[in-house]
Amino acid sequence: MSEHQERRASSLAPLVGAWLVVGIPFAYGVYQVLVKALALFRARV
Amino acid sequence: MPPAALAIHLSIGQVYAFSVFKIPLSRLIGGAQSTPGDWSLTTLAWIFSVAIVVLGLSAAIFGAWLERVGPRRAMFTAALCFGSGFWVAAAGVALHHLWLVVLGYGVLGGVGLGLGYISPVSTLIKWFPDRPGMATGMAIMGFGGGAMIAAPLSVSLMTRLGGIAPHGVAPTFLVLGAAYFLYMMFGVLIVRVPPPGWSPPVGATNATRRSAGPNTDVNVAWRTARFWLVWIVLCMNVTAGIGILEQASPMVQEMFKGRITAAAAAGYVSLLSLANMTGRFIWSSVSDYIGRKATYAIFFALGAALYASVPALGASDALPLFVIVTAVLLSMYGGGFATVPAYLRDLFGTSQVGAIHGRLLTAWSVAGVLGPLLVNHIRDTRLAAGVSKAHAYDTTMYVMAALLTVGFIANALVPRTSKDV
Questions:
Q1: Minimum distance, in Å, between the CA of residue B270 and any CA atom of chain A
Q2: Is B148's CB within 8 Å of A37's CB?
Q3: Which one of A32, A41, A45 has the shortest CB-CB distance to B258?
């Protein structure tokens, strides 16, 4: 790996980590809502 | 910067999930049922109302301070207020003192909400001068998403901690206070302010570059007619959106009686939350291309037409179309919140946009009180006049369409920015 690639990788890692910290709870929330929203189509009389 | 903003907004968005605590809080003494010593649901509604009013007031009062000290210190103060607000409220629940819960969650937490809401806005706009709508939309989408995380998390915590205290409310408040403080501190630690004169690399975006307005001091800006026109724009948009949000579950069950169960109604409310959240990102991003004035013109013209069509959809039993129409309406409600910081930036520049946005959020406080009052009053009056439950919402929808027409006029009167022409 070249020096340039190493520098790029080392600056990318914290960015990916930060996005994961906010992305995982966000995805969990969206999933929970989607599951609930499906009830609209399942539980109609 | 976007993850820092999202960490703050995902946390404070919890306020939209406060309703999950209402039933447990109303049965702290009675246990399975409310007893005369318990707090009523009407009384408990004050906790949320106070939080939203304090949100607007603190954003208005501390906005100028935020511009002076920068986003990190403001976000830290927000984390401290929001986290400790839960702890004070936990003490109020344990001692069964409602004033302490209002003081903790409503006042202290409300200050955390207001400061947290406006803290990342001006920094995001400075990082993304070519796409201010998308940047602030992403953060404000987090505010919509916060409730989606908080609601299942709070229910799960109350179930697990139910053995320690009645319904597990007080220990849940303690855990949430600590968890939100730490999560918001993550945002505090990673927030970065762009260097002076920073601009994105040429060719990094295809969005139309919309120049910011001349930098205006907050104390000058809020005395201009254009500020108050945008205030009316936000207030009308929020009041109309609350018209559906406030009554979504009973409304769909009563308008389509026999076709919608309680579980399906809960699913409908979730679908509206999703539309509200995605609308924040999509509409604000669209505004970077078509302009803020045109975006709000769509919200108000299309919104008024859709609100006016809701009674006919109910009468003709067109449930799928009703769901689609109300979801579009809620997407525009969210979009209104998310697009307004970029609108202010176009009109008043970037230097004090956080402070000006703070003053503008008083429109939300007014709408937060006015909207539910209006909607409930109209419904009660219609029912008292002998109108069936299925048609009790018709007048509300026409009133909401009228409010959006007022918003359309106010938006049309806002002077065009150079790039809107």
A1: 5
A2: no
A3: A45
Determine the longest span between alpha carbons in chain B, in angstroms.
67
Residues of B contacting chain A (CB within 8 angstroms): 3-4, 6-7, 10, 142, 145-149, 151-152, 186, 190, 258-261, 263-264, 266-268, 270-271, 273-274, 319, 323
Chain B interface disruption, residue of A28, A36, A38, A42, most B CBs within 10 A: A36
Q: Name the token pair of B96.
A: 């069964």
The span from the CA of B418 to the CA of B396, in Å, is 38
Residues contacting residue B50 through CB under 8 Å, at least 6 positions apart: B102, B106, B107, B110
Q: Can you tell me the ipTM of this complex?
A: 0.74
CB contact under 8 A, A18 and B3: yes
- Give the A:B interface size as CB pairs under 8 Å: 80
Model confidence over B173-202: pLDDT tens digits? Answer: 999 999 999 999 999 998 888 877 777 766
B22, B393, B369, B27 alpha-carbon torsion, rounded to 10°: -10
Note the pTM of the prediction, 2 decimals.
0.84
8 Å CB contact between B261 and A45: yes
Q: Residues B408, B295: contact at Cβ < 8 Å?
A: no
- Residue B321, CA distances (Å) to B267, B273, B335, B420 in order: 16, 17, 21, 33
A6 touches chain B (CB under 8 A): no
Q: Which of B146, B186, B264 sits opposite A40 (nearest CB)?
A: B264
**pLDDT digits 0-9 by tens, B127-159:** 888 888 888 888 888 888 888 888 888 888 888
Instruction: With CA atoms as reference, report the closest residue to B96 among B44, B55, B148, B56.
Output: B44
Can you give the pLDDT at residue B234?
95
Flag residues of chain B having pLDDT under 50: 420-421
Residue B342: predicted pLDDT: 92
